[in-house]
Amino acid sequence: MNHPHQDNAGPRHRTARADAHRVAVLVYDGAKLLDIAGPTEVFAEANRLGADYRVILVSPTGADVTTSIGTRIAVDTGPDIQPAPRTFLIAGGEIYPRTAVPRDLVDAAQAISVGAKRVASICTGAFILAAAGLLDGKRATTHWKVAHTLASRYPMIRVEPDSIYVRDGTTYTSAGVSAGIDLALALVEEDHGPDLTREVARALVVYLQRAGGQSQFSAPLQGPPPRTPALRRIVDLVTADPSASHSLTELADRLNLSPRHLTRLFRDELSTTPARYVESIRFDVAKALLDQGYTATQAAERAGFPSYESLRRVFARELEMSPAAYQRRFRTARRGESATDRATPS
Question: Of the candidates 165, 163, 283, 292, which has an alpha carbon nearest to the alpha carbon of residue 220?
Fold first, then answer.
């Protein structure tokens, strides 16, 4: 298989300038392919828009590796990289949350990190950073399924299990595989600003970019689906039409249940109240509408919030920012906007 980064980013396809931004990606047998391809494609797309990243794939021995799906990837070099990379990324894989990180991977991570200006992990790559001692005393995240394992195995790390990505100084960690794209977009924005990064996101047809502190979950996906048919019906009703009236009494009437019984079902199975569940669905809808370019007032109305102020309170509680601030930083550029129109402050 060719490098996932060769198109406009790899050393075989172009000669990088001496001052090119070198990005080293540590890979190994069993690394998840999307953890490698997703972030490196962001850098490759940035190159097509005027950036100058040189992505280098590194393995502990310099030998080629086999990914989690059995695809073989050619590697550029071992961990003795000269000159040192400015950015160092570690791909994740399912193997190392289950087993101890081997010494050669630990040594490679430590060696490459010495000269790097910033160090980052994708998904369970955080376990390799942690084993190398590079997360001690820092805030970090990883995939929610193994966040508890990371926290218990490495008690010196302050794990934030619900975040998409976390920055602590010059160290970055991210959640599941798609969050690696969010993290790479954030790194490109640091280097080249929001305008170029919006164009990268548009070319890749992804949002620019989800907030690092945003939940890894969409509200309807948190936890297992309800066991009770009545609750599954409520979930379907609210998700299908969040702007409709969904008071406790109305929801109970639709299912011929008492409000007290319905409240107990929500508490026992979803650990929330009917009102809070409806609010969480509307919050997700409002974020999507802001991403699409609707004003905060329009988003509040279409998502079913009684007023802009009620939407603002939920944003302040969940994201510690206003709807307008969220939109300025994270909405997708709309079709037909000029570069000047899209130049919103970060």
Answer: 283
CATH of 219-330 given 1.10.3720.10, 1.10.10.60, 2.40.100.20, 1.10.760.10: 1.10.10.60
CA distance 250 to 306: 16
Joined tokens for residue 204: 């890749």
What ranges do the domains of the chain cover?
A: 6-204, 219-330
How would you list the strands of the sheet with 118-121, edge to edge? 53-58, 21-26, 87-90, 118-121, 171-174, 165-168
Q: Tens of pLDDT along 283-304? A: 888 887 887 678 999 989 888 9
Q: Are 239 and 303 in contact (CB under 8 A)?
A: no
pTM of full prediction above 0.90: no
What single-letter DSSP state applies at residue 43? H
CA angle centred on 244, ends 208 and 319, rounded to 5°: 35
Handedness of CA 280, 286, 289, 290 (dihedral sign): negative
